[in-house]
Design goal:
The protein has three domains: 2-29 and 543-568; 34-271 and 497-524, 3-Layer(aba) Sandwich (D-Maltodextrin-Binding Protein, domain 2), CATH 3.40.190; 278-494, Dipeptide-binding Protein, Domain 3 (Dipeptide-binding Protein, domain 3, Roll), CATH 3.10.105.10. The chain starts with a helix and ends with a helix. A hairpin with a 5-residue loop joins strand 2 and strand 3. The longest helix has 35 residues, at 534-568. The protein is built from 18 helices and 21 strands. With 569 residues, it is an alpha+beta fold.
Length: 569
C-alpha cells in the first residue's frame, strides 16, 4: 500500500513536470515576459523614414514593417507584402499586402500608405532610398487597397534588396499627411504596424515597447515587453549583462565579447549581420582647404595605420578596409584597388611637396574633428597618428544627434566619423555616400561633398543592369576611381558580434539583420523574464523544485521497493 501511494505521487509529479520541462527545452514558443536590451545612447528620434541612424532602425524595426525582410543569404522573404511579382524587363514590381495588417491605432495598412511613404518621406529625407531610386522611379500605382505597383524608367536590379524596414518602413499616411515630417509629434511617439507598440520613453534612461496584440503575423510576438536601457559605457552594459540586469548586448566591446564567449548561459554570435556589411569611415570635408587638395588626402592616407586601429581599438575584431565596398559583398568587391600602406615618411614628403610646411612647433595645419562620444577611441588613435606628420587635430566630442547635425546639416567640420553600412547591395549603402545628387542636408549622405561625373554614371548604369557580372564590372571601375580620388578614408570592416542569454529562443535564427528583427520571434524558454528577471528566476526555482520533488519521490519508491525485496529475501 505505501508503495502504491508513492507510485501515484510520482506519476502526478511527473505529469506536472513534463510540460514544464518540455517547454524549458524549447519544444514550443512560450508567451510572456520581457527582454532588457542595452543601448549606448538615446536614438535621435523614432521616425526611421527620415534617417538611417543605426540606433533608430534597431528600435524601430520592432515598431514598423517593410514590404520584405531578408534571410541569411539576403533573399527577400515576406513582411508586409505576402507576395510580389517582377516584370520580365525588371521595370515593374507589384506587391500584394497582407490584408490583416493594421497600424497600432487600428487604421488599416493600405497601398496608399506605401505610396505616401515613398513619395513624401523616403524620396525626400532617407539618404539610402533617396540615392538608390534617384530619378529612375516613374510612378507608384495603387490599383486597390492591398496592391501597390512601382514602375521604373530603367530596370532596377536592387529593388527587392532595398524595401525592408530599415530602408523603406511603411509609415501611416493619416498621421503624417499635411505635416512637417521632421517635427511631427509621432516622431517621438511612433505608430507603426510592427510586432511591438510604443510604450514610454524616459530620455537618457530607457525606452519601452509593448506587445502588439493585433500584429498581422498571427501568433507573434511572444514577449510582452522590450525595454531598451541606455548605458553609455560598454563596460557598464557588460557588467549589467553579467549581473542579470540586461539580457541582450548589441554593442558590446570586442574584449567583452571575447570574455563572454566562455561564460555559461550566454550565446555569442556574429551571425545576423550579413545585411549590414559595415565600413568604418573617416569623412574629410572636401569643400574646405587643405582637405580639398588630393595630395593632402593621399598624405593622410599614408599617415593612418589601419592595422593598428584594428588590433588596438577593435581588439582584432575586424580587417583593414580597402575602399567603400565591404569584402563581405564578395561579388561587388574590388580587391585590386590602389593601396595606401602606412608610411609616415612618405606622408611627410607629400605634405612638404603640397606646400604645407611645419611651423616652429612642428604643426602644418589644424583640423576640427567632429564625432560622437561612442567613437572616442578611434578618434583619439587617428589624432595621434596624424600628429606624427604635423597635422594637429582638435577633437570635438558631441552627443550623437548633435554630431550628425554638425556634419550633415551645418557642414561645420573638417573631419567626421561614420559607420557606413553597405547594405545588401552597393546601390543601397555605398551609392548614397558618393553620388553628387546626394549632397545636401541629409543625414548619412554624401557628407564629404564628393563630385565625379563618371562615378555618378557608373552607379546609374549598375543600378539598371540586371546581369550581376556586368554590374560587378561597373562597381569595380567605380572603386578604382574613388580610391584614387580619396573622398573618404575607409578605415576598417568591423567583425562585431552580439551576446544574449541562452534562455532566449528565436534569436538570430533567420534574418540577415537580426538585430532589427529579433523581437518578433524571441521568447523565453522558462516562460519569461518579468520585472527585470524576478519572475523568470521564480519560474526557474519552481521548475527546479518540481524536478527535486520528482527525484525525491522516485528515490522514495526505490527505497521502499528495495526494503520489500530485503524482507522477501
Amino acid at each position: 500500500m505505501p508503495t502504491l501511494r508513492i507510485a501515484r505521487i510520482v506519476l502526478i509529479i511527473s505529469l506536472a513536470c513534463a510540460p514544464v520541462i518540455a517547454q524549458a527545452q524549447g519544444a514550443a514558443p512560450r508567451y510572456g515576459g520581457s527582454i532588457v536590451v542595452a543601448i549606448s545612447s538615446d536614438p535621435g528620434g523614432l521616425n526611421p523614414a527620415i534617417t538611417t541612424q543605426g540606433g533608430v532602425t534597431t528600435i524601430c524595426g520592432s515598431i514598423f514593417s517593410g514590404l520584405v525582410a531578408h534571410d541569411f543569404s539576403l533573399n527577400p522573404v515576406p513582411d508586409l507584402a505576402e507576395s510580389w511579382e517582377v516584370s520580365p524587363d525588371g521595370r515593374a514590381y507589384t506587391f500584394h499586402l497582407a490584408p490583416g495588417a493594421v497600424f497600432h491605432d487600428g487604421a488599416p495598412v493600405t497601398s496608399e500608405d506605401v505610396r505616401f511613404t515613398f513619395e513624401e518621406l523616403l524620396l525626400k529625407y532617407h539618404s539610402r532610398t533617396r540615392a538608390s531610386l534617384g530619378d529612375n522611379l516613374i510612378r507608384i500605382e495603387t490599383p486597390d487597397a492591398h496592391t501597390v505597383v512601382f514602375e521604373f524608367k530603367r530596370p532596377y536590379a536592387a529593388f527587392l534588396q532595398l524595401v525592408d524596414v530599415t530602408n523603406a518602413p511603411v509609415m501611416p499616411k493619416h498621421l503624417y499627411e499635411g505635416t512637417d515630417p521632421l517635427t511631427n509629434p509621432h516622431n517621438t511617439a511612433p505608430v507603426g504596424s510592427g510586432a511591438f507598440k510604443f510604450g514610454e520613453w524616459l530620455k537618457g534612461d530607457h525606452l519601452t515597447l509593448v506587445r502588439n496584440e493585433n500584429y498581422f503575423q498571427k501568433g507573434k510576438p511572444y514577449l510582452d515587453r522590450i525595454l531598451y536601457k541606455v548605458m553609455p559605457a560598454a563596460s557598464m552594459a557588460a557588467i549589467a549583462f553579467e549581473g542579470g540586469e540586461v539580457d541582450y548586448l548589441t554593442g558590446a566591446a570586442p574584449l567583452d565579447l571575447v570574455r563572454l564567449k566562455n561564460a555559461s548561459g550566454v550565446v555569442v554570435t556574429d551571425k545576423g549581420r550579413e545585411g549590414f556589411a559595415t565600413v568604418e569611415t573617416l569623412i574629410p570635408n572636401l569643400t574646405r582647404a587643405p582637405l580639398s587638395d588630393p595630395r593632402v588626402r593621399q598624405a593622410m592616407a599614408h599617415a593612418i595605420d589601419k592595422s593598428y586601429i584594428v588590433d588596438k581599438v577593435a581588439s582584432g575584431m575586424g580587417a583593414p578596409a580597402t575602399g567603400p565596398v565591404s569584402s563581405s559583398l564578395a561579388w561587388a568587391y574590388n580587391p585590386n584597388v590602389v593601396r595606401y600602406e602606412h608610411d609616415a615618411a612618405l606622408a611627410d614628403r607629400l605634405l612638404d611637396e603640397a606646400g604645407y610646411g611645419r611651423d616652429r612647433r612642428g604643426v602644418r595645419f589644424r583640423l576640427k574633428f567632429v564625432h560622437a562620444a561612442s567613437y572616442a577611441k578611434v578618434a583619439e588613435a587617428l589624432r595621434d597618428q596624424l600628429r606624427e606628420v604635423g597635422i594637429a587635430v582638435d577633437l570635438n566630442t558631441m552627443e550623437f544627434a548633435a554630431a550628425v547635425d554638425a556634419v550633415y546639416v551645418k557642414k561645420d567640420f573638417d573631419l567626421a566619423f561614420a559607420s557606413f553600412e553597405n547594405g545588401p547591395d552597393p546601390d543601397i549603402g555605398v551609392k548614397r555616400t558618393l553620388v553628387s545628387s546626394n549632397i545636401g542636408a541629409i543625414p548619412f549622405s554624401n557628407g564629404a561633398g564628393y563630385r565625379d561625373a563618371r562615378v555618378d554614371e557608373l552607379f546609374a548604369l549598375a543600378a539598371s543592369e540586371t546581369d550581376r557580372q556586368k554590374r560587378a564590372a561597373l562597381y569595380f571601375e567605380a572603386q578604382d576611381i574613388v580610391v584614387r580620388d580619396l573622398p573618404y578614408f575607409w578605415l576598417y570592416e568591423p567583425r562585431s558580434g552580439v551576446a544574449y542569454k541562452k534562455g532566449l529562443r528565436g534569436m538570430y535564427e533567420w534574418s540577415a539583420k537580426s538585430s532589427v528583427y529579433f523581437a518578433r520571434d524571441a521568447w523565453w524558454a522558462d516562460g519569461g523574464r518579468h520585472q527585470h528577471g524576478a519572475a523568470g528566476a521564480t519560474a526557474r526555482r519552481g521548475l527546479y523544485l518540481l524536478i527535486a520533488l520528482a527525484v525525491l519521490a522516485s528515490l522514495g519508491v526505490t527505497a521502499v521497493l528495495l526494503n520489500r525485496r530485503r524482507r522477501r529475501a
